[in-house]
Amino acid sequence: MKSLDILLWSVLPYIAIASFGLGLVWRYHYDKFNWTTRSSQIYEGKLLRIAGPLFHLGLFAVIGGHIVGLLIPQSWTDALGLSHEAYHLGAITMGGAAGIATLLGIALLIYRRRTTDTVFAATTKNDKTMYIFLVATLLAGSGATLSSAGVIGEEHNYRETVAPWFRSILLLRPDGALMAQSPLAFRVHAVVGMLLFIIWPFTRLVHAMSAPFGYMFRPSIIYRTRDEQTSAGNRKARPGWERS
Amino acid sequence: MKVMAQMGMVMNLDKCIGCHTCSVTCKQAWTNRSGLEYAWFNNVETRPGQGYPRRYEDQEKAKGGWVRTRAGRLRLKGGSKARRLLSIFSNPRMLNIKDYYEPWTYEYDNLITAPLGQQTPVARPKSLLTGKPMKIEWSANWDDDLGGGPENIEKDPILQKLAEDVTTKVKLAFEETFMFYLPRICEHCLNPACVAACPSGAIYKRAEDGIVLVDQQQCKGWRMCVSACPYKKIYFNHKTGKAEKCTMCYPRLEIGLPTVCSETCVGRLRYLGLFLYDAEKVLAAASIEDEKALYEAQLDLLLDPNDPAVLAAARAEGIPEDWLVAAQKSPVYKLAKVYKIALPLHPEYRTMPMVWYVPPLSPIVDVLTETGHDGEEAGNLFGAIEALRIPIEYLAELFSAGDVDIVTGTLRKLSAMRSYMRDINLGREPRPEIPAAVGMDQESIYEMYRLLAIAKYEDRYVIPAAHSEQAKELENMGCSLDGLDDGQKYGGPFGQASGNPVPVTIENFHIMKDRQTK
């Protein structure tokens, strides 16, 4: 294995995990104030009404597909009697549809962002950088889907290369050789994806980490007393130059 | 019974001259920052008129407030929790900034840097959102003083509602029109829809004084509160991506000072004080079926601060003694519950708003005077209140869910007070039958007059300060607004204005140190 392969498939994944995890902890601790969706709906709502749900819901399906594809070993679905062909047909049709929705969504979102003066004026450099990585990941991922289906190059069963590699990372026994033999589209997708996770905590993408599921289970009206407030306004001063 | 204290406000609309001093001073204190240029925590709108934001009372569009389901339960008008979570990627009820107005500035620079020419240089309007030249077509007070005439005023949602009934069709002919001013701040509701709508749980009612605040660190900018508030008093800061709202100037209240809008009110029409209410009964009161009974239900929540049982329950909840004294002296309790002349704004939204209004008698007196009658004679006034249906029904739509009797009762008390006091001021024999006609005695109507006409600073604002044992914490309190206004910091790797404000004591320490070494 070349040293580049070791770097990309056995070192970079852990850098990505570290940056993602520690970055989120750091930002949660020191920069809660900027942890927001930075929604631009107040400027423009009509395009967002279609593009926002299209992108996000498409992306959820894509994420769901990744979880199934990467975490469930082929031997398990084999044991269930699901044939390789049937699995791939399902993965490609559902994954393809989700991918198209996500790509259409992000295309519309970027079009909206560029053409609506107010939204464009509110776009930071940070946002633009993030969009490059996000779109690159999505495009490379779509390429990988096409590649696994045999539309580009020859058909490839990623469940024999990419998925075991991914699990080997999680099990702390990185097997980079598995990934190194996957087609180019998969390798590009993985690298760009890891870079996206590296910058994730430092971009507006952090809002994904605060998906408000708790809302379903909390009481409608919230009371807080002044004493127990620890955040905004009455937050207790942190230990600074004075020991507390 | 769970007794809680609520800081409340009453505004006497008869005294409002529409000078906008409250709006301007509030803006200077709270919203003169980028991201909130368009926001007026306090605004004064002319009624009839569309209000600010435009047509905010049209709840069919923005779906603000609560509705009672057929099963008798209370639900946000914007839909169930699950439904709203699903629409989080694009809130279908979200307002556009144009519903408020596009903020702008002028190219003042051009006035002094333009080259010598034939024409006088002009300062063109420039959008604060895009920086490009723009045409000013709307603002927070575009229809001030009925500006724009029928074209604008007819879009008032209340007028449109009244217009469905042909007999009350409002003619906007110049000689038949009426108007008054309505200053509005956050209602600091007992049953706030914004709090219930916040997916992050960032909006809360302060248990001590009921002030509704947004935790700026916890807010994630899901913007559900903006549409859920039926009064549209939550604003989306488009620079920080967080919701902000009227804080009832809590840093001032905590040291016993009135809010900026009250302090600077030229007409001295605002009153601040405590209500004691039964928190356990709020939901039941907000859920009753008949909209017109909501006002009474809201009044029933307010507890008598002189009742020993209430006081004992309040002490059991840990409400301090000086707060109880303040509740007993509270001018807002007297106006709302004792005299029953202050009414909540749109009780039909079921949020139990805690900013109350004494409805204006002036439109009626004006009409009487113009028609050659004695506008302050009790008989004339009583008759006119019944006869002048249009202003009355309009006021009823604002303050009593359309129940004309409630507004009429209030106005009759106000007119009785005028007529009764006129006799005294003119040295004539006071007529006890005037207060009796509105179910009051001479003493109470005189006290009401004192409170409405004479009341001094300390009578209008009865504000118990936060407690001295907590003063040390107040001293080091980070201002929730620090670091917000630095919209310029685009370049940083973590977005704009990252990080937390430095505590005041640390800042002071460094300043002192600099001085010592130099």
Percent of residues in helices of chain A comes to 55-70%
Q: Total strand count of chain B, please?
A: 14
Strand ordering within the main sheet of chain B: 12-1-14-13
Number of helical elements of chain A: 9
This entry's quaternary arrangement is heterodimer
Number of strand elements of chain A: 1
Shape of chain A, please? globular
> How would a crystallographer describe the biggest sheet of chain A?
none
Mean pLDDT of chain A: 90
Protein structure class of chain A:
mainly alpha
- Low-confidence parts of chain B: 480-498
Largest interface here, residues on each chain?
A-B, 61 and 72 residues
In summary, what is this structure?
The complex is a heterodimer of chains A (244) and B (518). With 244 residues, chain A is an all-alpha fold.
Main attributes of the structure:
heterodimer, A: about 240 residues, mainly alpha, globular, B: about 525 residues, alpha+beta, 4-stranded mixed beta sheet, two-stranded antiparallel ribbon, 25 helices, about 10% strand
Please describe what this structure looks like.
- The complex is a heterodimer of chains A (244) and B (518).
- By secondary structure, chain A is mainly α.
- Chain A is 62% helix and 1% strand.
- Chain A has helices at residues 3-30, 46-71, 74-79, 84-115, 117-121, 125-149, 162-170, 176-180, 184-199; one strand at 223-224.
- Chain A is globular, with a radius of gyration of 21 Å.
- Chain B is α+β, with helices and mostly antiparallel strands.
- A four-stranded mixed beta sheet of chain B has the order 12-1-14-13.
- In chain B, a hairpin with a 5-residue loop joins strand 8 (203-206) and strand 9 (212-214).
- Chains A and B meet through helix 2, helix 5 and strand 1 of A and helix 3, strand 8 and helix 25 of B.
